[in-house]
Amino acid sequence: MMHVMAVSTVSDDGKFWSGLKKAHAKLPKGAKWKVAVASKDGAKAVNIITHDSIEGVRDFFETHAGAYATTEYFEADAANAVGLPR
To answer: Around Cβ 18, how many Cβ atoms within 10 Å?
Structure first.
């Protein structure tokens, strides 16, 4: 498992978060949502999901919130992070 960071520039924060709230109940098997946080103005969001691939998180995330944000996906450096299990 890896920690996948989804860093989003949000165009419609209400629909974006509504989509992700619905998506939370439909996480792929073995995936866990670790962090979901937005900037105070709602224009940026960072989500961290553990899963076995970046592509799996991308497919899941884009299905539920892709129409309301432009998102980049990265594997987090958990070994050098604060607060993420290694």
So the answer is: 14
**Mean pLDDT over residues 4-32, rounded?**
94
User: At residue 53, what is the residue type?
Assistant: S
What sign does the CA torsion over 82, 38, 65, 23 have? positive
β-sheet bridge partners, residue 69? 10
pTM for this model (two decimals)? 0.91
pLDDT confidence of residue 36 = 94
CA distance 58 to 55: 5
Give the E-state strand segments of the chain in sequence order.
Answer: 2-10, 32-38, 44-51, 69-75
| Alpha carbons 80 and 38: distance in angstroms, whole number | 22
**86: confidence class by pLDDT, cuts 50, 70, 90:** low
Paired with 2 in beta bridges are 51
